[in-house]
Design goal:
By secondary structure, this protein is α/β, with parallel strands linked by helices. It folds into 3 domains: 5-169, 3-Layer(aba) Sandwich (Rossmann fold); 174-260, 6-phosphogluconate dehydrogenase C-terminal like domain (6-phosphogluconate dehydrogenase C-terminal fold); 287-362, ACT domain (Alpha-Beta Plaits). 47% of the residues lie in helices and 18% in strands. It contains 13 helices and 12 strands. The strands form 2 sheets. It has an 8-stranded mixed β-sheet, with helices on both faces. A 4-stranded antiparallel β-sheet has the order 10-11-9-12, with helices on one face. 32% of the residues are buried.
């Protein structure tokens, strides 16, 4: 089953990125529709579509594959419309963050296969779409017993052509997994930040005195409520179960603190360290070799691009980076991760020669 025509319903960040990545992958003709005319116009202007359609029907009626990329609350209705409007050869998928209720509700389980690319971004809208958004990302697919194997092979190949890693999973297992690894962290980030923002400590404002730990832990707090309210409610049972288990573990920590149980705390921290190493092993080939090059930078245009270009010119590969901004007056700290002590030493020498204050240390210490 060849893929010559792709229909996209919803041209926000994910939909526009699908179009851009599909064009790079050589898909013959890409049509798209969005209820927001501005989103549709921007997606077409950016080259995510070969042809903007005036209706959902126009975007999907001749497609081989349809990707529905609308908010979770509207996915069921849009998928139903796409299945009704598309020809019998069309396979329909989605990119929603929850799967069990959706996959159970869709009647045509031969032509529909659920999907979820795990490639979070705080940005939204087609302006922020990127053909690189899916590079190396896990893309869950949720085939069921009725799924046509040929359609699954088509979708699997399409996802891989976008640079993602397709992984088959049961819809209910997907939702349990997402509750633990995505929805729980998002909910706790909001809890922690709202807690810190609601109190004063002897007249001091906690948020004004916050360090990197609070910023790191709450990066996803306040994420787009139009998206996250639907996700929280659609996966409410699994999220409540994850919160209940989290509450039990917080109770254990409270008891250990009350008993001043240093042994329990040592084992607890050690267990977290081991789990952290397992997490990092998925992200980096050799986490132990990673070095953090910490650079104090002023708050002015061109500083970050100048640093990255200088390191690139010396063929020093930046594995990861983050900016810890303090204030317009104080600037911030740029943390650049590179592999190996030699690369870190060369980076430090280069940046120090340009007048920057630099500190090098292992990125992930035991």
């Amino acid at each position: 089953m060849a893929l010559d025509r792709l229909g996209i319903v919803g041209t926000g960040l994910i939909g526009a990125s699908v179009g851009l990545a599909a064009k790079r992958a050589g898909v013959g003709h890409i049509l798209g529709y969005d209820a927001d005319p501005e989103f549709l116009a921007v997606a077409a202007e950016r080259g995510a579509l070969d042809e903007p359609a005036g209706s959902l029907v126009g975007a999907v009626e001749d497609a081989d594959l349809v990707v529905v990329a609308t908010p979770v609350a509207s996915l069921g209705a849009r998928i139903g419309e796409a299945l009704a409007a598309a020809g019998s050869r069309a396979t329909v998928t989605d990119v929603g963050s929850t799967k069990a209720a959706l996959c159970a509700a869709v009647e045509d389980r031969v032509r529909f296969i659920g999907g979820h690319p795990v490639c979070g971004s705080e940005a939204r809208g087609p302006t922020n779409g990127s053909e690189q958004l899916f590079a190396g990302a896990t893309w869950f697919l949720t085939p069921v017993a009725e799924t046509d194997p040929e359609r699954y092979r088509l979708l699997h190949g399409f996802v891989a052509s976008l640079g993602a890693v397709p992984i088959a999973i049961d819809p209910a297992a997907h939702d349990r997994l997402m509750a633990l690894t995505s929805h729980l962290p998002h909910s706790l980030a909001n809890v922690v930040l709202n807690h810190a923002g609601s109190v004063r400590v002897d007249g001091h404002e906690p948020l004004a005195a916050a360090g990197g730990s609070l910023r790191d832990m709450t990066r996803v707090a306040g994420a787009n409520p139009r998206i996250w309210i639907d996700i929280f409610l659609d996966n409410a049972d699994q999220l409540r179960a994850a919160l209940g288990e989290h509450r039990r573990r917080v109770d254990e920590l409270e008891r250990a603190l009350e008993a001043r149980d240093a042994g329990w705390l040592a084992r607890w921290i050690g267990e977290a360290g081991g789990n952290r190493r397992r997490l990092l092993a998925e992200a980096y080939e050799d986490p132990g070799a990673m070095q953090r090059v910490r650079v104090h930078v002023p708050d002015r245009p061109g500083v970050l691009s100048g640093i990255t270009q200088a390191l690139g010119a010396e063929k020093i590969n930046i594995e990861d980076f983050e900016l810890d901004h303090l204030s317009p007056e104080r600037g911030g700290t740029l943390n650049v991760l590179v592999a190996g002590e030699d690369a870190a030493r060369r980076a430090a020498e280069l940046l120090e020669a340009q007048g920057y204050a630099v500190i090098v240390s292992p990125a992930f210490e035991d």
